[in-house]
Amino acid sequence: MKNINPVKTYSWKNLQNHFKKIKKLTINDLFLIDKNRFKNFSINFENKILFDYSKNFLNNETMIHLFNLARETKCIEAINAMFYGKKINITEHKSVLHTALRNDNIHFFLKKHQIYDDIKQILKKMKNISDNIILEKWKGYTNKKIKNIINIGIGGSHLGPLMITESLKSYKNKLNLFFLSNIDSNQLINIITKVKPEESLFIIASKTFNTQETITNALSIKKWFIKNINIDFNKNIFSKHFIAVTNNIDAAINFGIDKNNILPLLSEIGGRFSLWSSIGLSISLAIGFNNFKKLLQGANKMDQHFFSNPIDKNIPIIMALISIWYSNFWNTETEAIIPYCENMRFLPAYLQQLNMESNGKSIDRNKNRIKYQTSSIIWGDIGTNGQHSFFQMLHQGTKLIPCDFISFAISNNNNYQDHHIKLIANYIAQTKALAFGNIDDYICKKNIYQCCFGNKPSNSIFLKKITPYNLGLLISYYEHKIFIQGVILNIFSFDQWGVELGKKITNFLVEDLNQNIQKINKYDSSSQGLINFYKNFN
Ligand code: F6P
């Protein structure tokens, strides 16, 4: 990958000049100028996902400059480097191979890569475990069937499986799924009061197997399990109820996990890109291995699109450029993700990690402090609920907030079409109201407070239906969009060193909070005050 400062490119300067012109046009103007605007600024991906980016501050000239920015910052070269297994994760000296997890049919790499054999083995093991649990061949230590799956993990070892299994709820089997991520014991208690040890399978999902929250939760669950089974504990019992997904095999064995119950998580798979890997075991258990494979196939289809399409026909590249257009030229600070889909309510949280842990950086690939914007703040919530909470600000606030509105044309609940029609009507109405407002209505002239000036940009991402395949397409799209943003912004998107300092300070504080001594004077006065407040009560 080339390390090009985007600000130094010709296209960046052209975009700055272009901005001075186009900012005088409203979205309404842009629609009046181009009668075929929807056709010219939308892409229908195999009639499975429609990407409508027409309600944005852009025209053909904008796109030409943006495409030139992608060319000047060598995006196509970066895509090839990733798919050909180059060590583009330079700060961790690794390749970035999440696409290899889902391309058993197309070998993108120049040569057959060892990882394929590893992946095949892992998928085989995932299928085995899933089939045996779902078909009730795998029994608990009292010979009862497994009813509950508890995924113990956090960050990428939690958010992906949670978001996918919730989004695909209509594909779920009868297994009860629980996600234990937070170190706040209330989440643990909420779960152990609902499940019986003899009917439960615990998946300890942790690439490093030393994340404080995950290991603390795992040890507490182990203790609870041993305390609650009515016979002496032995390894054979443990192996019927505990599985580990990790890159740290030794640590899992030391924890007491049977070697045969350890699913490797390959080191070239980043945590936030790992739902397609053995971290996806809870997905495969919840919806069945065949549906998990369809999820992978959908992602692979978008990979092929991303890998083989030219810049101006490449959906992740187009949408990445639009995000950069807003954050770096319109100075927007945030992007809202608004799924008009109850079951996709965890998508904003998932995309927060994918986006902000990848591109929340301030040192460029040449080790220089960055003087331009990198990751936007990603936030959001489901529609139509958002319309009754933060939409007021979207419509009449002072902030410019580009939004991704996401919905699905075919409902999975045939008996409630009335609901679905209203959901879709709201989904379309909101982007229309945001873009065009009501400035021509008499109400706007009569009462300024009821005036929506419009001119608020949004993308509409419209799935045909929420299926494993289509969800795979959508998530892979976002992975590649975020990757391209990092390429253009000249940052390393695959490390997350920023999270280490907090962990280090936490470890010192855990020790100090455990001390009986009342007064500790080695911290700043604020931390000191907080420690002493805690100690007043404990
Ligand atoms: O948030 C930091 C992080 O390392 C994430 O990148 C990762 O997904 C999460 O913690 C969990 O890490 P592990 O899977 O190693 O427990």
Plain-language structure description:
Helices cover 46% and strands 11% of the residues. It is an alpha/beta fold and 538 residues long. It folds into three domains: 6-72 and 309-488, Glucose-6-phosphate isomerase like protein, domain 1 (Rossmann fold), CATH 3.40.50.10490; 102-290, Glucose-6-phosphate isomerase like protein, domain 1 (Rossmann fold, 3-Layer(aba) Sandwich); 500-535, no CATH class. A six-stranded mixed β-sheet has the order 1-2-11-10-8-9, sandwiched between helices. It has a five-stranded parallel β-sheet with strand order 4-3-5-6-7, with helices on both faces. The mean pLDDT is 95. The chain binds 6-O-phosphono-beta-D-fructofuranose. Residues 154-157, 206-208, 211, 214, 271-272, 357, 496, 499 line the site of 6-O-phosphono-beta-D-fructofuranose.
Short description:
By secondary structure, this protein is α/β, with parallel strands linked by helices. It has helices at 10-22, 27-33, 37-40, 60-72, 75-83, 114-134, 159-167, 185-192, 212-228, 235-239, 249-255, 281-287, 289-308, 315-329, 347-359, 391-396, 417-436, 442-446, 468-488, 500-514, 525-537, and strands at 42-45, 49-52, 148-152, 176-180, 200-205, 242-246, 262-264, 334-339, 377-379, 403-410, 458-465.
